[in-house]
Specification:
CATH topology: Alpha-D-Glucose-1,6-Bisphosphate, Chain A, domain 4
Strand order of the largest sheet: 2-3-4-5-6-7-8-1-9
Number of domains: 1
Helix content: 10-25%
Order of helices and strands: EHEEEEEEEHE
Number of helices: 2
Length: 165
């Protein structure tokens, strides 16, 4: 099992950071719908409640080419807990390593609410014990670097971003 934790400070209030990662669907929006992010896609299969809890999605993202998956991975994800403008948790299963992932992000107001510290945590576990021993660390390190880059780029739409850890 691998754990990755990283924090970013962005010059934007928590409610703007929340909306960036939890956009409200446009009235009458078709489901499923797919949108692209800097390193892959997200397809919404089922909307969640007003805060996003219960949302079901699939995601594609890069993995090392030596996994023989064409450099692409897929996950099936469900947002299991949300507190608007504060916290969101998801659980996922992914391939090609057939992994179970749990992740969350917290939003902490800073400078009187003018900026936000976003902390992202992900726990990754390859199910197969042989693949876990051989590949889990290398694959998760690759995914974590990619996640960090994605967070930096996406948060940059809101203002200046600093990675803290």
């Amino acid at each position: 099992m691998r754990r990755h934790e990283v924090s970013f400070v962005v010059d934007a209030p928590p409610h703007r950071v929340w909306r960036l990662f939890h956009p409200k669907p446009v009235p009458g929006a078709e489901v499923p719908r797919t949108f692209e992010h800097p390193n892959g896609t997200i397809t919404i299969l089922k909307e969640g409640n007003d805060d996003g809890e219960g949302l079901v999605r699939t995601a594609t993202f890069p993995v090392p080419k030596w996994l023989l998956s064409g450099g692409a991975a897929e996950s099936f994800e469900c947002v299991t807990e949300c507190r608007k403008n504060e916290f969101a948790r998801y659980e996922a299963v992914g391939k090609p390593l057939w992994s179970k992932t749990e992740g969350w992000h917290t939003l902490e107001p800073m400078n009187g609410g003018e900026s936000t510290r976003l902390t992202f945590v992900e726990i990754y576990h390859a199910k197969n014990p042989v693949l876990r021993w051989l590949l889990e660390k290398r694959v998760h390190d690759f995914i974590s670097r990619d996640n960090n880059d994605t967070y930096l780029k996406v948060l940059g739409y809101l203002g200046t971003v600093t990675q803290q850890s």
